[in-house]
Amino acid sequence: SxxxxxxxxxxxxxxxxxxxxxPRVDGDDDDARESDRASTPEVAKRPSMGARSLSFAPFDSFxxxxxxxxxxxxVTPGIELERRATASRTSTPEDAATLARLLxxxxxxxxxxxxxxxxxxxxxxxxxxxxxxxxxxYLLPLWWCGWVIRHFVLFPLRLGFILSASAAFALAFxxxxxxxxxxxxxxxxxxxxxxxxxxxxxxxxxxxxxxxPSRRGHMGGMVYVSNHTSMIxxxxxxxxxxxxxxxxxxxxxxxxxxxxxxxxxxCIEFNRTDIKDRNTVATRLKQHVxxxxxxxxxxxxxxxxxxxxxxxxxxRGAFDLGVDVVPVAIKYNNIFVDAFWNSRRQSFSRHLCxxxxxxxxxxxxxxxxxxxxxxxxxxxEFAERVRGMxxxxxxxKAVPWDGMLKYYRPSPRExxxxxxxxxxxxxx
Length: 428
Description:
two-stranded antiparallel ribbon, alpha/beta
């Protein structure tokens, strides 16, 4: 009887035969050298980890437009095996070379498709899609009746109410500002009532949980931090107890309110594009928390509005002040309306009209126990711990993104440098 050779030896001889039969094309020199080294006894003893190829990847490490080249080891078992199998079936060396170049960029295309499919950053700023109705002969008339009532009955009544409340607020605030001492607190009371009028104009159904800020006395020296969905977050919290808030400068009637009523209760304005404002805000924050006669400070450390499904990273400024931090979780129910304000698609006035033309705005607000920075904890770890508490309470998903990225786009010079780097990688 004839002895049967081992299976590994048979497979190795078959691979050598197929390699000798395969025509050599451009770009396969490295692969040939790799197969020759793999046939030696020293390399054959190593475990197979897939086909490996060495290439030079150009990149711009300093952002100055000059491309450097670095030797990168790529592990592409599927691509290399497919290249070898297809090259043996090609009729001309030119076709094999073209296919090899196409296979070289398939990994980049795969990463790009995966990034587009699973884009967790843009999901944070997408509005909720309206649920499709199962229209039929008895639901369609009810839907149209509801639409007519919301837009032609409720909306005019609510709009008239908020305009009347705005006129009354202007008169009361001017009287309290010029005719009464500030220590009486009439200005703060006007702001609190005006915020409550806004909530009434949406038919707001707000349920508060936990120990709320006291109406009596002052609770300065404490910072409240909350997730941010819209500017109405401040109105929802202020109707219970007024807060001093850090706010982005706006134009129009919102900017007028900021320069008059909001400044009267020691709110802090800033411009996110001005570096000098950041230094000024940091100084004013420390001064505010050091004065216990002022209102408690409310900060939205995300720095932008998120769609109330996700929670982006917190800025560390609110956690470097050396005072207690009170986490506040706000969760809106989208059964009637989506409370998320997409400032890039609609103005705040349009956002308010959308809220006033809905049936109601339903939300839950949780005031949690004050948290203090631990001795073995950094400011970033403290911020992450507080963010985790808010996400857990409100049912939000924490994502490792900086919300300010949505305000900044790559410069054309950087995009052009990346295109050149990609082209140089294909032509190498």
